[in-house]
Amino acid sequence: MSEQMHLIGFYMHSPINHSAMSWADPEDGRLDGMASFDHWKKLARTLERGCFDAAFFADTPGGYDWYRDSLDDYVRYGVCWPSHDPMALMGVMLAETEHLGLALTLSTSGSHPYTTVRRLSTLDYMSGGRVGWNIVSGHLRAEHRALGAEQLQHDARYDHADEYMDVCYALWNGIKPGAILADREKGLYADPEKIDVIDFKGEYFRCRGVPPVLPSAQGRPVLFQAGSSGRGQKFALKHADVVFAIQPQAAAMTKFVKKLAETAETEGRKDTPKVTFGIQCVLGGTEEEAKAHQTEMADRIPIDAALNRMSGTMGVDFSRLELDSRLADNTTEASQGMLMALANMAGDGDATVRDAARMFGASTGMPQVVGTPEQVADELETLWRTSGCHGFNVTPTTSHRSVEDFVDQVVPLLQKKGIYRTEYTGKTFAENVMA
Predict the structure, then answer these.
(1) Is it the case that residue 347 has pLDDT exceeding 80?
(2) Is the pLDDT of residue 343 over 80?
(3) Distance between CA atoms of 166 and 163, rounded to whole angstroms?
(4) 134 and 226 in contact (C-beta within 8 Å)?
(5) Of the candidates 208, 108, 115, 104, which has an alpha carbon nearest to the alpha carbon of residue 160?
(6) Could you give phi then psi for residue 413, rounded to 5 degrees?
(7) How does the average pLDDT of the chain come out, rounded?
């Protein structure tokens, strides 16, 4: 556990963040914000004012098509549809800030590693080293259908992703110290003897060329990964600086952190990755007011909207199951770790499909911390100390209102406790998030 709690804002470039139907809340400004750079500039400034490490963007290319084998409810309820490219926001938000990091989810199934390195590292270089990459292996069936590509099985996806990363590392490490001469008098820009020509030939990828982008102030983007299964954790331990996870309560968070450390030792990794947990804070002037807001959020969500999202993420058509059957009785090739986390959200593994859908619709399986700012700050401290995690990916209920409320009402309490920074100490994303 770090000496201070770390916070990352958790978003999507769609009509919602992680609460289905949040766009229908009169306080939510996302629908207008999707057509405006100003919306995202304001978000970036707010997060930097709150000394957040970064804004972290999840992504759902292709959407959710497992429920009833249809895209209808995905479109009907705006369940992350339309799914705009978060890359479009990166440069805008980085240019608006001086310290805030920006982390982007990109699938290893959706583009060639050369293209990914070129896109991410260009922004990383221009921002002075403030970019991160959340590596996902492409678990969404709809993404593969949209691309006309075949979807690999769970473990094979990670084998494919391992090779993907081998190409990325070769490109990131291919420019040696002293390679850039920039000698105007001699007319020499670089020394080719100090720049590798990558000639990669693997099972899945071919790449021949020189690195397309200069190394940033942090060398390469900060790497995030969210694998929770056995194979996924091995991938995370091989590549991730920070592991992002969703666990339903303190006991599960503690178990996850401990298990990751044990697996790291088994795999021979000396520095266990930092762990951040997804969380949603529901604030109110009183506890009763906060709980009323929580209930209002959940009641707004049609069961089909919740099941559509859960089905797409899990790779299971929950329309074929009884709503009151035990979730743990089902298996999936999609997100195995998330499935078990949801099944245990009540602490005993007996959560039903209906229970899980209600929670998933409201917060995508992330635990909700509900109460006054003082209660929320106290609970975050308890979860942080009890689990030994690095910090939290905080998803809002509405934009921008709940983000501003958290920054203005909860952050000062965490700072007063002495467990959260009052100013940035590093210049790069890596320096700030790894502190």
Answers:
(1) no
(2) no
(3) 5
(4) yes
(5) 108
(6) -70, -40
(7) 93
**pTM beyond 0.85:** yes
Which sign does the torsion angle of CA 61, 66, 67, 72 carry?
A: positive
- Residues 6 or more apart whose CB falls under 8 angstroms from that of 238 comprise 162, 165, 267, 269
Could you tell me which residues come within 8 angstroms of residue 275 by beta carbon, excluding any fewer than 6 positions away?
242, 243, 244, 245, 256, 257, 260, 387, 389, 390
Cβ-proximal residues to 109 (8 Å cutoff; 6+ apart), any chain: 137, 138, 143, 144, 147, 149, 151, 157, 160
pLDDT in tens, 32-63: 999 999 999 999 999 999 999 999 999 999 99
**Whole-number Cα distances in Å, 424 to 50, 294, 421, 427:** 10, 33, 7, 8
**290 near 281, Cβ under 8 Å?**
no
Give the pair of three-digit tokens for residue 345.
Answer: 């959200």
Q: How far apart are the first and last CA of the chain?
A: 11
Amino acid at 250: A
Q: What are phi and psi of 123, to 5 degrees?
A: -65, -40
